[in-house]
Amino acid sequence: MHVNRYDRPYLADDFIGCVGYDVRTFLKDNSDHDRSVKFQRFVMSKKLNLLQYDISEMRSFFANVGEDSFRADQMMHWIYRRYCDDFRLMTNFSRSLRRRIGSISQIIPPRIQEEKVSLDGTIKWRLISSSKDTFETVCIRDKGRITLCISSQIGMFCEVSILLCFKQKI
Known about the structure:
2 domains
């Protein structure tokens, strides 16, 4: 289930306690609309993307915000078992913890930048991460199974044809 996190404008109160942000300085001398839009862009660009963390990094993250390490396991469960990217739905965290985590982090999956479909149904996607890194993945459907090949190098692209990649796999 995907829930739109951006169903209301951000308010300065949403980011009280946010590390490194001087909200009053940022909001000074802007119209209400400009402040809302600029503040949202500013804060979203400075947040940590929790999808980039493995379990040990997630435990460090929670230790740095003063929480027990078991919170990392709970967060991983929400992200990878329940496919949840909205802290407001993570009900085994207190409301104050959800707000605190939401003020300094986000869960942003890579998005498809380009898609190519071959005649045999193989799909090649170029993805872009929240940090603007690009990588490729290929989805090959064959005889009742699906093979997903994911690039292990950011910025490297497969320039050979999909058919050749498929033959090399065999």
